[in-house]
Write a structure and sequence with these properties.
The protein is of the alpha/beta class and 242 residues long. It folds into 2 domains: 2-120, 3-Layer(aba) Sandwich (Rossmann fold); 132-233, Orthogonal Bundle (Arc Repressor Mutant, subunit A), CATH 1.10.10. It has helices at residues 10-22, 33-42, 59-69, 84-93, 105-120, 158-169, 177-185, 193-206; strands at residues 2-6, 26-30, 47-51, 75-79, 97-100, 132-135, 138-141, 146-149, 152-153, 175-176, 216-219, 223-226, 231-233.
Length: 242
């Protein structure tokens, strides 16, 4: 699989590229945002590792432009800032994961493998054996990894789709942020604000009134639950276009 590393620090980029190649990935490097956008079309990466601080075109803008053309493309953001506000900003822009500099290259490789495993596992979730899940106007085709709202396509990131599928596979069941982080992200520990941000982004896409959610509701003192019954077609059902 192809990984695009976008970082103007040549030393960091070389180390990251070497670790990724040792892990079996094909890697390309972009020292700035303009080059990254060009390589997105030419190299066609399966995942992008994107530094927040870039010369010229900022990392957040690069992430936004990548999302416009390839909303399903996984992005792991690198940031020199450890403040929660900076991490949240990156996640709100569309990053699927983030690491704060300095970081362990081995940990980055593990994060890459985790994100790719989630994005490539169209029907690997043991919690979801249905091919199509529907709640009200929201419908997802599990094998195709597509979602619609009232028949119109939803542009979801990898994590947003995983989160939506997990909730719809467990209707009316409350989950804590820590449990969602473990089951959806595959992390045993981490900053649960990651979950909070993704839930907020998901609500903006699936709720008719995100400020007063009717589907993805908050369970005070616990976390979140998907309200309402979900209809699911079994594995033998026809999975046509939604």
């Amino acid at each position: 699989m192809r990984i695009l590393v976008v970082d103007d620090d040549s030393t960091v980029a070389e180390i990251v590229q070497e670790y990724l190649r040792q892990a079996g990935f094909e890697v390309a490097h972009a020292p700035d945002g303009v080059t990254a956008l060009a390589l997105n079309s030419q190299f066609c990466p399966d995942l992008v590792i994107l530094d927040l601080l870039l010369p010229g075109l900022p990392g957040l803008e690069v992430c936004g432009r990548l999302r416009e053309t390839r909303p399903e493309l996984p992005v792991i953001m690198l940031t020199a800032f450890g403040a929660e506000s900076d991490r949240v900003l990156g996640l709100e822009t569309g990053a699927d994961d983030y690491l704060t500099k300095p970081f362990s290259p081995r940990e980055l490789v593990l994060r890459v493998q985790s994100v790719l495993r989630r994005s490539g596992a169209a029907s690997s979730s043991s919690a979801c054996t249905a091919r199509r899940l529907i709640t009200g106007g929201v419908a997802i085709d599990v094998p195709a990894r597509t979602a619609t709202l009232d028949g119109l396509p939803l542009l979801l990131t990898v994590r947003e789709f995983d989160l939506l599928m997990y909730f719809m596979s467990h209707p009316n069941r409350a989950f804590s942020r820590a449990q969602l982080m473990q089951d959806v992200w595959g992390w045993e520990f981490g900053d649960t604000s990651t979950v909070t941000v993704h839930v907020r982004r998901l609500r903006e896409k699936v709720e008719r009134d995100p400020s007063n959610p009717a589907l993805l509701v908050t369970v005070w003192g616990i976390g979140y639950r998907w309200a309402g019954a979900t209809d699911g077609d079994g594995p033998t059902a026809i999975s046509g276009a939604m």
